[in-house]
Amino acid sequence: MPSPSDTDPLTFGAFDYCIFIGLLSIHALLGIYHALRRDRYKTAREFLLENRSINPIPVALSVLVSTMTSITYLGVPAETYIYGPTFWLMALNKPLVALIVARTFVPIFYRLKVTTIYEYLELRFGKLMSICGATLNFLFILLCTGILVYAPALALTTVTGIKLSYSVAFVGVTCSFYTTLGGAKAVMWTNVFQTMIMLTAFTSTLTVGAVMVGGIDAIRDVMNTHKIRLSNFSPNPTVRISFWSCFIGGTFIGLSAVA
After folding, report:
1. Residue 80: Cβ within 10 Å count
2. What is the pLDDT along the chain (259 residues), one digit of tens a residue?
3. Which phi and psi (to 5°) does residue 39 adopt?
4. Interhelix angle for 117-125 vs 127-160, to 10°?
5. pTM for this predicted structure
């Protein structure tokens, strides 16, 4: 198998551009469709909750895809390539996180009819705590969004050759367009569409990758030869990744993201 240095960089061809433009067009059309179909929002609650009229299955798919960012798509493959596949253990805490959120947080928020955690903080601890929480989260989102936009923009620059600054602006404007235009329903249905795209892409990548290296048996042989471990149950806290750090630490990370 040729090394990366022996191969030409992968760039978009005509077919790739057609697929890419088609996907962006679907996102934009979903935003326009929901903007034209709905009545004008009168309150922030209507914009965020759509008067609680949304089907729970699309909402669940939207929440699922919202927890996976460009950092996930680009970072996890690099993590796996360099350090091995042990990081998959992070997925084991997801059912526990969902159970805790569904049984503990959601009933309280639903009963109080709050749209954000900051409303709850104000009801429970006062206005000052709500302002502090909102300010800290704003700073976090401000810093995090820069990375989240930069990562796909860098990937886009790599495969298209356009300037990075143009790529950053393109990603930001595209996402802002359908989000602000269509409201919560547009975001939800674009996320559902992205879920289908991601599942198709993940399945295709795994299938093609397995075929290219010679099938499941070849993968197993490589893992045995290089002593690649799928799990690590060591209780040593200094181990880089273990079942315990992924399950316990990952649970708190998951709760901070969706609770």
Report:
1. 14
2. 444 445 556 788 888 889 888 888 888 888 888 778 766 666 666 666 666 677 788 888 888 787 787 788 888 888 888 888 888 888 888 889 889 988 998 898 888 888 788 889 999 999 999 999 999 989 988 888 888 888 888 888 888 888 888 888 888 888 888 777 777 778 888 888 888 888 898 899 889 988 888 888 888 887 777 777 778 888 888 888 888 888 888 888 888 877 6
3. -75, 160
4. 160
5. 0.72
Number of domains in the chain: 1
CA distance 10 to 160: 9
- Residue type, position 96, single letter: L
CB contact at 8 A, 177 and 28? yes
Query: Is residue 22 situated within a structural domain?
Result: yes
The whole-angstrom separation of Cα 163 and Cα 156 is: 9
Among residues 220, 222, 241, 221, the alpha carbon closest in space to that of 232 is found at: 241
CB 120 within 8 A of CB 108: yes
- Residue 20's domain comprises 10-258
Give the C-alpha distances (Å, rounded to integers) separating 145 from 71, 97, 136, 139, 253.
Answer: 11, 24, 14, 10, 17
User: Interior CA angle at 155 toward 153 and 159, to 5°?
Assistant: 115
Residue 3 lies in a domain: no
- Burial of 111-141, coded b for 16+ CB within 10 Å and e otherwise, reads eeebeeebebbbeeeeeeebeebeeeeeeee
User: Which tokens sit at 232?
Assistant: 């690590």
